[in-house]
Amino acid sequence: MRRVVVTGLGLVTPLGGDVETTWSNILAAKSGAGKITRFDASDQKCHIACEVKPADHEYGFDPGKRVDHKVQRQVDPFIIYGIDAAGQAIEDAGLLEMDEATRFRAGCSIGSGIGGLPGIESESLVLHEKGPSRVSPHFVHGRLINLISGQVSIKYGLMGPNHAVVTACSTGAHSIGDAARMIKDDDADVMLAGGAEATICPIGIAGFAQARALSTAFNDQPEKASRPYDKDRDGFVMGEGAGVVVLEEYEHAKARGAKIYAEVVGYGLSGDAYHVTAPHPEGSGAFRSMEMALKKAGMTPGDIDYINAHGTSTPLGDELELGAVRRLFGNETANLSMSSTKSAIGHLLGGAGAVETIFCILAIRDQIVPPTLNLDNPSEGTTGVDLVPHKAKKRPVRAALNNSFGFGGTNASLIVKAVD
Amino acid sequence: MSETADRVKKIVVEHLGVEAEKVTEEASFIDDLGADSLDIVELVMAFEEEFGVEIPDDAAEKIATVKDAIDYIDQNKG
C-alpha cells in the first residue's frame, strides 16, 4: 500500500506570516485577536477579529514575497494567503525544481469555505453604483474558490490533479484527506493540500453575527473573546489566513532524501444529517468521523496523545465534541491532551483544518502541545480532560488527531503520526 | 512628454506591475509588458475612468501599444 507523508509546511496566520513565527507565538500563548482595522465595524454587533497583520508588524505578512504585483491586484486575499502558504510549503519540501515528469505527478488540493467574499461585496457595490461596464474583468477568477489551486499550479507548473474542496469549516481537513487519498490511489506522488480563508469584511462579519455564531460580549477585550470550553464563551472570533502542506508518497520522499515531518495515517468523514448550523445534539457525526479515522489508521484510542479540537468557543459545539471524544476514547480520555488553538488565532473557517493539522504535526516534531487560552472557568462538562489551559505543555506526542466540523453538518478528522 | 502620456504610463505601471522605464510609447501591452487580453480590458476601463472617455470594444481591440492608447485618448477626450 502507498503511504503518504508530510514533507513541507506553509502558514499565514494572525500570529505570523510563516510556520516558525506562528508556532513560537502559539506556544508563547499569544493572541492574534484585536479590534477590526480593515473597515469601520462600529455599527456591527461584533467589533473584533483575528486579522493577518501587515508586513511592518512584528509578526506580519508580506504579500509581495511570493505573489506577483499583478496577481495581488486581481485576486481576493484568501488566494494571496493560499499562494504564499503553498510557496512556503514547496520551498520547505525542497521541491522548487521538479522535472516535467515529476510535475505531471504533482497536484493541488487547496480549498476555501467561502471564497472571495470581500471582492464579491465590493464589486457588487461597483455594479450598483457605476453599472456593469465597470465590473472588473478579473472579478470571477479573482474570487473563485478553486483559484488557489489554479494559481499555484500555474506558478509552480504542477500538472497533476487540480482540486478544491468546499465544505465550510471542514475544508482544510477534507482537502488534506482527499489529497492523501489521491496519492494512495496513485493519481499523484506529490500534492499541495490545505485551505485558506479571508472574510473579515462588513458582509462577512454581519452574516456570521446574524447567524449568532460570533462572540459579541468581548468587544472591549478582544484577546479574551475566544475562550473554548470556558463558562463565559459566547461565540467564535473570526480569523483569516492559510495552511498548506506538501503531501508526498513515502518512497518518493525517501528516494530524494526529503525531510519527513509525519505520516498521514487516518482520515474520517461523516455527515450530521441534522441542522444547517447547529451540531448534532449527541455529537454523532463527530464521533463517527473520529471513529473512522482511527479505524483507517489501524489505531486504538490509546495511540492518540493529542487532539487539536474543533472547539470554536461556541456555547453548543465545544461540549458536544468533548462528549464525542469521551465516548470514543473511554478510559484513554484521561491520558490524552486536547486543546483549541482557535483560542489564539480565532476560527480560520476553511483554513482551520489545515492550519490545525500543521499544529498537530509540529506538536509531534517538538513533543509539546499548544495551549487553550482564556480557559479561566472550565465548563462543568470538561472535568477529567486535559484541555491544556493557558500554557503549552511538554509531553510525549506519538500521534495527533485534528477535528473539523462545518455548517451543513460536515465533519472531518485527520490523524498524523511520527514516522517510524 | 504630454500630460496624457504621463497619466497613461502611471496607470500601466500600477496595473501591470512593470518598471516605469519599460513603459515606452512603442511598447506593446502583450508582447513587451506581459499583459493578457483581460489585463487590456482592465486597462481600458482604467483609461475610461481616468480621462472620462468612452472606449468602445472595437476601438479597444485596436489598442496594442502605449502610443495607441495615448493617441486614442487625445483624439477623443472632451
UniProtKB/TrEMBL annotation, chain A:
Q: Where is the catalytic site?
A: 169 (for beta-ketoacyl synthase activity)
From the UniProt record, list the reaction(s) this protein catalyses. Answer: a fatty acyl-[ACP] + malonyl-[ACP] + H(+) = a 3-oxoacyl-[ACP] + holo-[ACP] + CO2; (9Z)-hexadecenoyl-[ACP] + malonyl-[ACP] + H(+) = 3-oxo-(11Z)-octadecenoyl-[ACP] + holo-[ACP] + CO2
- InterPro entries annotated for this entry? 3-oxoacyl-ACP_synth-2, Beta-ketoacyl_synthase, Ketoacyl_synth_AS, Ketoacyl_synth_C, Ketoacyl_synth_N, PKS_Beta-ketoAc_synthase_dom, Thiolase-like
Give its E.C. classification number.
Answer: 2.3.1.179
GO MF terms, alphabetically ordered = 3-oxoacyl-[acyl-carrier-protein] synthase activity
Q: Which PROSITE patterns match?
A: KS3_1, KS3_2
Q: Which residue range or ranges hold the Ketosynthase family 3 (KS3) domain?
A: 1-418
Pathway(s) this gene product operates in, as recorded in its UniProt entry = Lipid metabolism; fatty acid biosynthesis
Keyword vocabulary terms for this entry: Acyltransferase, Fatty acid biosynthesis, Fatty acid metabolism, Lipid biosynthesis, Lipid metabolism, Transferase
Top-level EC class? transferase
GO biological process entries: fatty acid biosynthetic process
Q: Which family does it belong to?
A: Belongs to the thiolase-like superfamily. Beta-ketoacyl-ACP synthases family.
Q: What does this protein do?
A: Involved in the type II fatty acid elongation cycle. Catalyzes the elongation of a wide range of acyl-ACP by the addition of two carbons from malonyl-ACP to an acyl acceptor. Can efficiently catalyze the conversion of palmitoleoyl-ACP (cis-hexadec-9-enoyl-ACP) to cis-vaccenoyl-ACP (cis-octadec-11-enoyl-ACP), an essential step in the thermal regulation of fatty acid composition.
Indicate what this protein is called per its UniProt record. Answer: 3-oxoacyl-[acyl-carrier-protein] synthase 2
Source organism of this protein record: Sphingomonas cremea
UniProtKB/TrEMBL annotation, chain B:
Query: Does the keyword field hold DNA repair?
Result: no
Q: Where is each Carrier domain found?
A: 2-77
The UniProt family comment states: Belongs to the acyl carrier protein (ACP) family.
Kindly provide the name given to this protein in its UniProt entry: Acyl carrier protein
Gene Ontology CC annotations of this record: cytosol; membrane
Alphabetical UniProt keywords: Cytoplasm, Fatty acid biosynthesis, Fatty acid metabolism, Lipid biosynthesis, Lipid metabolism, Phosphopantetheine, Phosphoprotein
Describe the function of this protein: Carrier of the growing fatty acid chain in fatty acid biosynthesis.
Provide the organism lineage as a comma list.
Answer: Bacteria, Pseudomonadati, Pseudomonadota, Alphaproteobacteria, Sphingomonadales
User: A GO biological process this protein is involved in?
Assistant: lipid A biosynthetic process
Q: Under which pathway is this protein filed?
A: Lipid metabolism; fatty acid biosynthesis; Glycolipid biosynthesis; KDO(2)-lipid A biosynthesis
Modified residue annotations for O-(pantetheine 4'-phosphoryl)serine = 37
Compartments, as annotated in UniProt: Cytoplasm
Q: Which domain of life is it from?
A: Bacteria
- Pfam families this protein is in? PP-binding
